[in-house]
Amino acid sequence: MIKKLSLISLFTLLPASYYFAQTTVFAYIKDQDGKPLERAEVDLAQSVDDVTADKIGYFQFVDLKPGHYLITVTKPNFESKILEFDVTADEKRKNLGVITLSGNVGSDAGVVVIDDSANDTEDGGSAMQPTVGLLSSGRDAFQNVSAFELGAYWFRPRGVDNRFEDVFFNGVPMSKNDDGRIDFSNWGGLNDVTRYPYENVDNITPSEYTFGNLGGVVYYNTRASSYRKQTSLAYSFTNRSYLHRALATYSSGLSKKGWAFTFSGSRRWGDRAIIDGVYQDAYAYFGSIEKQFSDRHSINLTGFGSPTYRASNSPNTQEVYDIMGKNYNSYWGWQDGEKRNSRIRNVFEPVFMLTDYLKIGKNSNWTNTVSYQFGSDARSRLDWFHAADPNPTYYRKLPGYGLLTEEEFKAQSQIDWNSLYSANRLNLKNPDGTDRGAVYSVVEDVTKDQTFNFASHFDTRLKDNWKLNINFNYQNLKSDNFRRVKDLLGANFAYNQNAFDGDVSYNIDDPNVQAKEGDRTQYSYLLTKNHYSLNLSSEVDFAKWNVVASVFSSYSESYREGNYRSYRFQNNSKGKSAVYDALDAGIKAKITYKINGKNFIVYDGAYFSLAPTFNEIYINPRTVDYLTPGVRNQVINSNDLSYIMRGQILKLRLSGFLTTISNATEISRYYADVQSGSGTALSTLVNEAMSNVNKRYIGAELGFDVKILPTLNATGAASVGEYKYTSDADVSTFDDINRFRGEDFWRGKAQIKNYKVAGTPQKAFSFGLKYNSPKYWWVGASANYLMDQYVDISALNKTPYFYTDAGGNPIEAATPELVKQLTAQQKFDDQFMLNANAGKSFVFGKYRMGVSISVNNILNNRNYVTGGFEQGRNVNFDDALADSQRARPYFSPKLWYDKGITFFTNVYLRF
């Protein structure tokens, strides 16, 4: 009896605050129509136990102590949702309100397999860049449709390309410093851990974690405890850029001792894709380990990478496609009974991050990340020394040139590897018995980057309706760029000499001109950059208004350090260059007026500058440290106005936008072939620069999702835009033989005003139907129409040089009408595409299984041009006129066509 009384007394005497320290947290889960979602699973990251919502969608967690918590809500056929909240000591019950889950078309049902092999060619392809939208669906109907339906056909919302988009991992930017673009291959295959971004903002909408750019921000938080506790296995079969994909992911959840682990790995491989000679073998790995020291402090170590080996496909002229078909690829040939591609991209650039999460006081959080990325990106190509061009589609080998018939061309339409080896064997020795070098070899253009980042994010609530974010980022890049010998093709060595410039050594400080396999050759230089940026943003919420403002400033220093001394540029090729510095600043704002709970008016505005990338700063960094004439910061001004409706039956967004880009610099590199009859010879590799480029993007967007029946939705999107150059541009060229040639040589500016910006259909429409069965199966289809796709222009034939003679006088036959006809920008035909997808998910106790299939271009339309560029060869009137009068022009644009019908099937098991 005494023992019982002692126990009673003990509990009676406990401080009252003990009871109040235990809080019940609850919420209701509903779908987009406000209907309860039964059996939705709720995972509390700080607990090993899950809870399941009841018949009215209700769930609760009891006895939660004060602290910061994170829950993940999931249900088959719906998108998962992650929520964070705080529990304070004075709360007995905390109501999280209604958690709304949006319907999902199914795991991987709408996945778009990026095939960016077109970007691996040096023949052009500036218009062939994937976008963030291809990997992450947006938050409204327009963004979803443009990503998964129109995005499969290289549609870019508002005409914005990869250069103007941002992807962040734990605050660390993933854009490359050479061209500002995002290399998705760095985390390709890691779908499970990048499926749901922590933040995904569209267009110029301000972000909490960065200032952002024109094309939106995708922010990933790789904190191990934020991933749902489960094991996931998946297998996919496709005919797009690979055949097979195997994927496995494990997340432990947060243990009682404060540890959490998430690991993921995949492989994508296959060698029988639609385009001839294309194959891929890519692995991927991801690891995240978190240690939570308290409910206010934890650290997380993340590492991921994706070693990828991928063959490329060539752009071709229309003549080649007419003879060989749309699957033709000139980059490969047979060797010992196997297909061998000369253009291989071998990239592996792993990333390691250490992130510290700290909660300060009741309303503030401070997150700091340090990261290090290293590795190499190597792209191979054939090289030759005092020999014929081995490219099967070299214009003199085409039937239209007259030397070969169509049958003879078909017989030698692929690279003849045996003949290349044979040519090297016949050239092994001089008559006196000494060694001779390779006639043909395979070389690799290699970039080895070492990137250190420090990213800091601080957020606090100044008041219940007022939030402040502060972001700081520092980046240090050291980039080693060189060409190396990959395969001598049976020769003893390759010559490190310039066959197009009297066989002078590429490095006159080194008397040894012999390069063995693995040795550097032709060029070698370092690029260094230090970049600092500071961003402040604030959001204030009122009864009828929501206002977000964001400002930033950044400073960067860049320089080149050459390892080779060039014969022609001895004082500007080797050693450290002068430092190029750039200062940027900008402001963004978002103002939302809440008409009522379902209708909103939203204005977004941005005005900021953007420093040039390495590719824009140096006109030919492989040889010299010369700056691109006229290079300076771009100035971007963008505004949009939207009406948004979020009803239970109809969800809609209608937007109008206007963006101007001023002072841009555009660099193209290609081989120009000009005969002396025009007054000068220009047969060399040319670096073409347009500076002071001004562009305008104007248009309107409409996206809607309407519930026709409880299980049937109609979705649609329309984008009507005009993206064009609004002024003539300064133009200059640089090549190793003729050095700089500015406007005095080209006799004026490039007359590009009113030419269209290439790279995307400027008008696109999509309408789809989707049926979601209560029994967890679904089927959908969409009709897509794409209009106003243009070829990427070359600048030199738009200058007065094109229609003037050697003395600068107008050519008599070059009438304005004829010049306009010869320099007209090609517009591709409008095209109709049909897509479909279907799938089903199953639940067996704690096991969840799903199967899905998506098919694009069901009608097998092979006439859609996904991109193309003008060849920069005919830069004078006489040559261009003669070429236009040929039945098969020698130098018509090079194009990529859509692959036709493609499919992606997926099956997964989760438990």
UniProtKB/TrEMBL annotation:
Record has Translocase as a keyword: no
Signal peptide start and end residues: 1-21
InterPro entries per the UniProt record, alphabetical: Beta-barrel_TonB_sf, CarboxyPept-like_regulatory
Pfam families associated with the record: CarboxypepD_reg
GO cellular component: cell outer membrane
Protein name per Swiss-Prot or TrEMBL: TonB-dependent receptor
Keywords carried by this UniProt record: Cell outer membrane, Membrane, Signal
Location(s), subcellular: Cell outer membrane
